[in-house]
Amino acid sequence: HRFSTQVNSRTNLIVFKLITWDCITAKGSGYRCQIYNGVMDSKVYQHVLGTTYMETLDYCGFGKAQVYLQHDNDPKYKSKST
């Protein structure tokens, strides 16, 4: 599976958990990517920035100097390697 599943025995519903990274630009929604192992650490975050984020900027016609990257204060965003 590329996402985790659970079965709620009381209701017989299957619950899917899907972790994604998304971005929003002035021109609308950017690309979305799935975090396959369900954990976004600094290494995964750097990969997302180098691929999905940069592809979104390219698609929307933005240069790196034209955007502000906003995020919360989660440690993965502030690590020395990031």
TrEMBL record:
Origin species: Rhizopus microsporus ATCC 52813
GO MF annotations, alphabetized: nucleic acid binding
Protein name according to UniProt: Integrase catalytic domain-containing protein
Top-level lineage group: Eukaryota
Lineage: Eukaryota, Fungi, Fungi incertae sedis, Mucoromycota, Mucoromycotina
InterPro entries registered for this protein in UniProt: RNaseH_sf
